[in-house]
Amino acid sequence: MPSYDFALILSRPLYEDELDPLFDRTHGGVTVSIVSEPQHDELRSPDRSADRLGSASCCWPGRTLAVAIMEVVEHVETSAPGVHVLQVEADPLLTIRDISERVGRSLDSVRHAITGSRGVTGFPSSEMSTAGHRLWRWSKVAAWYGVDDPQLVEAKPTVQAINGWLALRDVVPDVAPAPEEVTSALSLVIPHVA
């Protein structure tokens, strides 16, 4: 069974007291943003919760990407009442080390590719920088290296469909299909990763 990398955007960060239930459900397989400072307790009120989004990321096994995402959505929302998953992203941001591991090249080789100091130029621009470290979008890096990643083929339509389902669930919850119906429909039309 393949494992899938993806991230979830949450309606708010989790609180420290919500971590144990999530850990128990996922055996530590989901990393979330948390709020631990007492001065942030005002986020618990409904009118303040939209001020600060949370995130969850993981590498989760599943028959398909859709199944893996829906399982983690259920774990997060059950573990932290009041938290809702707003959006999913399945094209991970990678460090130089992550890129090196995925493409089977040395760190120096990847650094030279990024700077264009040796060989082919035109390496994709970094998407963001955090704590002094740049991060690159895997789909762009894979395309540049010519890596055929079947999970990226599965990711685009799956993420688009699940994000549509998440939006529908928030706007018109009575009309939104059950998660199993979404994963079943996606399994009929999206090629699976073997």
Order of helices and strands: EEHEEEHEEHHEEHHH
Q: Major sheet: order of its strands?
A: 3-5-1-6
How much beta, percentage-wise? Answer: 15-25%
Low-confidence stretches: 46-50
Keywords summarizing the entry:
194 residues; alpha+beta; four-stranded antiparallel β-sheet; three-stranded antiparallel β-sheet; 7 helices
Could you give a short description of this structure?
The chain has seven helices and nine strands, in the order E-E-H-E-E-E-H-E-E-H-H-E-E-H-H-H.
Describe the protein in words.
- The structure is a single chain.
- The chain is α+β, with helices and mostly antiparallel strands and about 190 residues long.
- About 40% of the residues lie in helices and about 20% in strands.
- It has helices at about 20-25, 65-80, 95-105, 105-115, 140-145, 150-170, 180-190; strands at about 5-10, 15, 30, 35, 55-60, 85-90, 95, 130, 135.
- The strands form three sheets. The protein has a four-stranded antiparallel beta sheet. The protein has a three-stranded antiparallel beta sheet with strand order 7-9-8. A two-stranded parallel sheet has the order 2-4.
- A hairpin with a 2-residue loop joins strand 8 (about 130) and strand 9.
- Helix 1 runs antiparallel to helix 2 and helix 3 packs across helix 4 (about 105-115).
- The longest helix has 22 residues, at about 150-170.
- It is globular, with a radius of gyration of 18 Å.
